Amino acid sequence: MTHTVHPYAHRLGIIRDWKSRWFSVKAKYKENLQGDVLIYEYLRKRLKGCFVSSIEIERSVKIFRIIIETSRPGFIIGRNGEGMTKLRDDIMKFVRRRKLNLNEELKIDIKEVKSPEASAMIVAQMVAESLEKRMPFRRVMKTMVEKAYANRDVKGVKITLSGILGGSNMARVESKKVGRIPLQTLRADIDYAFYEAKLPLGKIGIKVWIYKGDIFSKDKNVKV
C-alpha cells in the first residue's frame, strides 16, 4: 500500500536539511523541541501578511539564532530597524511568559526571497489572500499557477484547494497543475506548503507543490 509522505521530510538528509539545527543532551531535548515548536507557531501568527517563506532555528552554546526568509523584509525590519527591535522584544516576552528554555543570546537574521513566485509558502499565502478578498477560486488558481510557472527556475506547479468553494453546500477538492511534479524522485527539488484561508463559510485548505529541477551535486546547489 502506498503512503502519503511530506515532500520535505521525504528528502531530509538527501537534498534537504533540518529546519531546527542544534545538539542537546537527553535531559534538555524535550524542552528545546517544545520551545522550537512554540516559537514557530508564534512567529507564523506574528508575521502573518509579511509573506514569510520559511523560519529556521539554530542553537549554539551562546547564540539562539532565528533565520526568517521573506519577500517583504521591509515590513519586518521597519524604519531604522524599529521593527526588528519590537520583534526581538516580543519574542523574549513570549519566551518568558511560556517559561521556555532560552539561555542563549537571541539573534534574528532576515533574508530576502528574490523570486516569491518560486516559493510554495508565499504562493499559498497569495492564494489565501486572494480568496479572503472574495475573488473566484478558479481564476485565483489559474492566475497563480501561470505566474509561478512563468518563473525560469520553475518546471512544474500544482495547487489544490479543499473546502466549501464558490459558496456551495458541500465541500470538495479542486486542483490545477502545469508541468511535472515528480514526487517519487528523491533528487527532485520539490517545494511544498500548506496554508489555510479563513472565509465566512469555513476554512479552505491550500496545498502548493513547486518543482524546480533535479539536484545532482553533493553541495545541494547545482540543479539540472
What keyword list fits this structure?
224 residues, 4-stranded antiparallel β-sheet, alpha/beta, Ribosomal protein S3 C-terminal domain, globular, GMP Synthetase, Chain A, domain 3, 2 domains, 30% strand, 31% helix
Outline the structure in words.
The chain is built from five helices and eight strands. With 224 residues, the protein is α/β, with parallel strands linked by helices. The protein folds into two domains: 17-112, GMP Synthetase, Chain A, domain 3 (2-Layer Sandwich), CATH 3.30.300.20; 116-214, 2-Layer Sandwich (Ribosomal protein S3 C-terminal domain), CATH 3.30.1140.32. It has a four-stranded mixed beta sheet with strand order 1-2-3-4. It has a four-stranded antiparallel beta sheet with strand order 6-5-8-7, with helices on one face. Strand 5 and strand 6 form a beta hairpin. The relative contact order is 0.13.
